[in-house]
Amino acid sequence: MPISQAQFLRSNLILLAGAAIALLVIVIAAFWLTRASERQFDEVVAFRETRSATADLLSLAQDAETGQRGYLLSRDAAYLRPYTDAIARFEPTLQRLKASAGAAELAQAEVARLEDALRGKLAELAQTIALAQRGVWDEAIATVRQGSGRYLMDEVRDGFGKIIAQSEQRLQQAIAGQETASARLRWTIVLGALVITLFAAAAFWTIMRYTREIIAARSEVTALNIGLEQRVQERTEALTRANEEIQRFAYIVTHDLRAPLVNIMGFTSELEATAAPIKAYFDAGEAATPAVLEEARTAVAMDLPEAISFIRSSTRKMDGLINAILKISREGKRVLRAEAIDLPAALQAAAAAVHHQATENGDGITVESPPLKIRSDRLSIEQVLGNLLDNAIKYRSPKRELHVVMRAKREKSGWVVIEVEDNGRGIAATDHERIFELFRRSGAQDKPGEGIGLAHVRTIVRNLGGDITVSSELDAGTTFSILLPPDLSAVQRSTST
């Protein structure tokens, strides 16, 4: 029987309350055991610090004695280096021992006896060194031979041994206590985890009964969200490209249309200047001088035709630019019709259309494509392929026979890639993006053209939902890669919703 929402909530509240109580018990026990473990750990650290400070003090006493004996035997002050270093480090190390012994709660009487023995030993060393430094070497050596220093050193070693033994014993006890606390903490955590796991398993079983239908609904929503995210990403990329193209288009159009307009304005001013000698001639009438007559003849015979010719040339260029812009604009408004296209056949048809030009300048066009079909606009595909093949033939290299290869393949994503590769004169790396801009051309301007073709091609390909890129090297050939969706209808539905 399906579980109701009230039953689901009641069951989960009971399980949640039980789990909360178990968790509270675990937290309290874990806190108490953790504090005990921390105390044991602090004791371990204090005992180890006591042992370390004790060993350091013993080493300093031995270094000081070594420096004294070396100095007395060699009478060379350089041998006092261990003694002076030991004296400099003695007080900080002794204070470290006192602090750690207090933290470890060791018998302070042992520490006090050790301190007295150390200070007595250091005083004996200082006395003999002072005698030697005053030049009383025999008396200094006699003081050493009396044996008081050896007796004090024995007391020092005995004190060190007692403190280290006591520290070691307490250290082992602290380590054992820490291990016990850690073991109890582990068992508490394990048992608590088992209890919570049981509650979690019961809750999971209840939730699974209730959420089977919700999971199915979420799966459907997730699939819809993924599709929506893809469409949003595609539209964002398309809008970004469109914005970039609009900015480039605005710059190019204003720049290229302004150039002939500036020429027209300039030669219009020249026409105004040319009218001056003609007006002067007519105003003078029969009284015109030969110089005025000559200036008027020059203006009519040379200046006026030249200015009119340049104005006509500039207006013709503006007309060509405007017609090119209108052509691309009309292409963007044309209604695309998605239909099944046999790509190998389409490539063969495009190659056959330029077969004569290709074989006249080289060994023709090779088509390499497995059986492949897409749904797209046939006229647009034909225009793109025709334009790319025309460019391959137009910009062939004079150094070798033309050879063009057309390929088609399907990517893992399902999209289709069409490549048009030639061995022509190539395109400089700096012009790979520039060639797709309106009215822009690359390389030597020795072939007729307005810089419209590839801009038109990219507009068509992007209208089909795809994109076009180029890879090329100068004097090594060019490869255009066209990426197209497998179904134009799906792209149109995506952009319309």
Automatic annotation (TrEMBL):
Keywords: ATP-binding, Kinase, Membrane, Nucleotide-binding, Phosphoprotein, Transferase, Transmembrane, Transmembrane helix, Two-component regulatory system. Residues 252-488 form the Histidine kinase domain. Signal peptide: none annotated. It is an enzyme of class 2 (transferase). Its EC number is 2.7.13.3. It catalyses: ATP + protein L-histidine = ADP + protein N-phospho-L-histidine. The keyword Acyltransferase does not apply. InterPro entries: BphY/WalK/GraS-like (IPR050351), CHASE3 (IPR007891), HATPase_C_sf (IPR036890), HATPase_dom (IPR003594), His_kinase_dom (IPR005467), HisK_dim/P_dom (IPR003661), HisK_dim/P_sf (IPR036097), Sig_transdc_His_kin-like_C (IPR004358). The chain crosses the membrane at residues 12-33, 187-208. It comes from the Bacteria. This is histidine kinase. It comes from Bosea vestrisii.
